[in-house]
Design goal:
Order of helices and strands: EEEEHEHEHHEHEHEEHEHEHHHHH
Largest sheet: 6 strands, mixed
Radius of gyration: 19 Å
Shape: globular
Strand content: 5-15%
Helix content: 40-55%
Oligomer: single chain
Distance between the termini: 31 Å
Number of strands: 12
Length: about 350
Amino acid sequence: MTAFWTEADWDEHELVQLVHDKASGLTAILALHSTHLGPGAGGTRFWHYADPQGGMRDALRLSRGMSYKNAMAGLPMGGGKAVVLLDKDRTKTPEMLAAFGDAVDALGGRYVTAEDVGASEADMVAISKRTPHVCGLPAGEGELGGDPGPFTAMGIFLGIKAAVAHKLGRQDLDGVRVALQGCGSVGGGVARLLAKEGARLTLADITPARAAALAADLGATAVAADEIMATSCDVFSPNALGAILDAEGIASLDCPIVAGGANNQLARREHGALLAERGILYAPDYVINAGGIINVSLEYLCRQHGEPCDLNEVRARIAQIPERLESIWRESDESGLSSDVVADRMAQRLIGRG
């Protein structure tokens, strides 16, 4: 692995820390991009990387994305992310979770962790036994916290409706063709919300049986994972892993809109311009997918301050996502800059780097 501060995704991060605990087998990377607005908040990704440099790339990119996401969502939180490097069998033990919790706690509240790919509510509970700086803990009916997926899905659904209105001039989704990549907690939630509005869905997932089951349930069509990006549609909605919008991926698109919840969809910063050149409206991922972090961040802040939590406040903030996207697209139309550049500049100003 080369020096991380020479990586393309290094962006004046405040802290990048490698944690290794021999006794438990934990190896993790914790990255704080910015604490200008508050403690760096962002989930922990438990993943096996054939090349550990991929883990560093994820930690750098995702922590920067969390700075932008939290700032654009109006949260008093900075941006952070952690990556736990798992073996090929994706071994995850109670001892590893405890050691990771100790590493988070050692930062004294500068980093607040939450669920991400490969993590669960049970993992967050285990980590919370070692540090209070955890959000997304189990929640009862009508309470904040818990699985962020449904809140993320709601924001994406509202963002897709906004994109259809902006690009296609339609106020409803009846008959709108959506090709949705990823049928997990978030993608599946988006698909169900879209289906209720009459959208025509084509689904794909890295686990074909999951896409097939959801398609059967919703009256949708399932295709192979390697076919979904080239599917002719009105909206391509990526809700799996990131970096899919590279030159080849963008060339394969047959749609006027890209709007989905996957983090870091653009493989590189210049790929936003390629989308714009093709006339494809892009919803910056960290704006449209902010519903989950809105929920768990407010849960954490209420708990820290000993204040009652209001689920209606979460819903109200998620309902602002379409307006935020519209302001980005409007400035993009007026300036000629791609929507990702407009959003990045807005976020950079908010975190004191503009």
